[in-house]
Write a structure and sequence with these properties.
Layout lengths: L3 H7 L18 E2 L10 H17 L5 H4 L2 H13 L6 E3 L3 H14 L6 E5 L4 H13 L4 E4 L8 H7 L4 E7 L11 H10 L3 E5 L11 H4 L3 E4 L14 E4 L1 H4 L38 H17 L1 H23 L5 E2 L11 E5 L3 H11 L2 E2 L1 E3 L3 E5 L7 H16 L15
Parallel strand pairs: 1-11, 3-4, 3-5, 5-6, 6-7
Antiparallel strand pairs: 2-8, 7-8, 9-10, 10-13, 12-13
The structure holds pyridoxal-5'-phosphate.
Pyridoxal-5'-phosphate binds next to α5 and α6.
Length: 413
């Protein structure tokens, strides 16, 4: 008898995409593509060319093609997020981009120096937003949630005429809650505030249409579902007409209207250009190309369809195999309200996570205080892997093999 998982894999129209990634035969079941995506085969070839032909031999002459990389890769990402024309750039890290855009937004109007976010947001975002608000003489309001679902009503109540920015993660890093982008954007607008999205756990996993949502600003990572590689730079988006009215808080030479004019006076570049600051990490950016090309070829709609059935399948595995062993679920059960990862709760989640990595060849991650986070990348995760991972999670708990990890506190989870 073939298992349900094997049947789902056989019918999967995206099954071929897995072959585009470097995947060790008999290697671990990788459920952390939402933290660091796998390496596309083509990335190694491109990195070699970027290092040998462009750097070692081309030297400074290669800047003529490198110079356009932030815009070229930005437009590839733009296609994945519904960004109009020339409105997205690759630059810096997500946290830095968040700082740049939130600061620029608050500088527009000193009377609007409060920022609103929720407690599902990524801690780095919260630190950055608090700093930006306090620097502007305001404060950060963190709307409490139930730990799983976005507190939409609470956000509505927290908004007001002193709010310059509403900033949320479209998909929450821990619970996987997916906001309604259009609805929240309208809410921000009804209070005269700007909407700033963090798309880190959403881009490449769920449909995003910043243009349709009339979104103001967005930032996001490229090393998660975009498979851009460790330390790949982030991206940022600003609605074209809004960008013209914002001042960049770090007016660097790459954001200048004429970078090689070497004028001592700063003239901001057009629109989004002014937010690029300075010399980009060229080798890291070269590695981003294959992942973006694959996603644009496959299309986010197909990714989303597979993703919903994978997270639903995991939830079935949870009901069938794991619920009775003390596992709860920290992810919305409504598929329309969740991204591409499922987080289980367990009293011994960290010890179980470590035992899975060390002894069972399964790589999830731990998100405190009690979350075992399972990320499914539709480009390469199979249904059979999900089924097998659930079986091994069950085995580790039933055999109590996690117990010897109970006092281990790793620096990185
Ligand atoms: C992964 C992630 C980040 C990471 O930020 P870096 O500046 O790239 O380290 C930030 N915000 C969110 C929501 C994330 O998921």
């Amino acid at each position: 008898m073939t298992s349900r998982a094997a049947e789902l894999d056989r019918l999967d129209p995206l099954a071929w995409v897995r072959g585009e990634f470097i995947i060790e035969e008999g290697g671990p079941i990788y459920l952390d593509g939402n933290s660091l995506g796998r390496c596309p085969r083509a990335a190694l070839e491109i990195l070699r060319k970027a290092a040998e032909a462009d750097w070692a031999n081309g030297l400074v002459r290669s800047w003529s093609s490198w110079f356009d990389l932030p815009a070229r890769l930005g437009s590839e990402i733009g296609r994945l997020i519904g960004a109009a024309g020339d409105s997205t750039r690759v630059s810096d890290s997500t946290s830095v981009n968040l700082y740049k855009l939130a600061s620029a937004a608050l500088r527009r109007n000193p009377a609007r120096n409060r920022i609103v976010t929720d407690d599902l947001n990524f801690p780095s975002d919260v630190y950055v937003l608090r700093e930006v608000a306090e620097r502007a003489g305001g404060l950060l309001t963190i709307v409490p949630s139930d730990g799983i679902h976005g507190p939409v009503e609470g956000i509505n109540e927290a908004m007001g005429e002193d709010v310059g920015v509403l900033s949320l993660s479209l998909v929450a890093y821990r619970s996987g809650y997916l906001y309604d982008g259009s609805r929240l954007g309208k809410m921000a607008k009804s209070f005269g505030s700007l909407m700033l999205w963090d798309l880190s756990h959403a881009v490449g996993a769920v449909p995003i249409d910043l243009g349709e949502w009339d979104a103001d600003m967005a930032v996001g990572c490229s090393y998660k579902y975009l498979n851009g590689g460790p330390g790949a730079p982030a991206f940022l988006y600003v609605r074209p007409d809004l960008a013209e009215t914002l001042a960049a808080p770090i007016p660097g030479w790459f954001g200048h209207a004429e970078a090689f004019g070497f004028s001592l006076d700063y003239t901001p570049g057009q629109g989004i250009e002014r937010f690029t600051v300075s010399t980009p990490p060229v080798l890291s950016m070269a590695a981003m190309e294959p992942g973006l090309a694959l996603l644009n070829r496959v299309g986010v709609e197909a990714v989303r369809e597979k993703s919903i059935s994978q997270t639903a399948f995991m939830m079935e595995c949870w009901t069938g195999e794991l619920e009775s062993l003390g596992f709860g679920i920290l992810t919305p059960t409504d598929p329309a309200r969740r991204g591409a990862h499922v987080t289980l709760s367990h009293e011994h989640a960290l010890a179980i996570d470590l035992a899975l990595i060390e002894e069972e060849g399964v790589i999830p991650d731990f998100r405190g205080p009690n979350g075992l986070r399972l990320g499914f990348s539709p480009l390469y995760t199979t249904f059979s892997e999900i089924e097998e991972a659930a079986r091994r999670i069950r085995r580790v708990v039933e055999s109590r093999r996690y117990e010897k990890y109970r006092s281990v506190r790793p620096r990185v989870t």
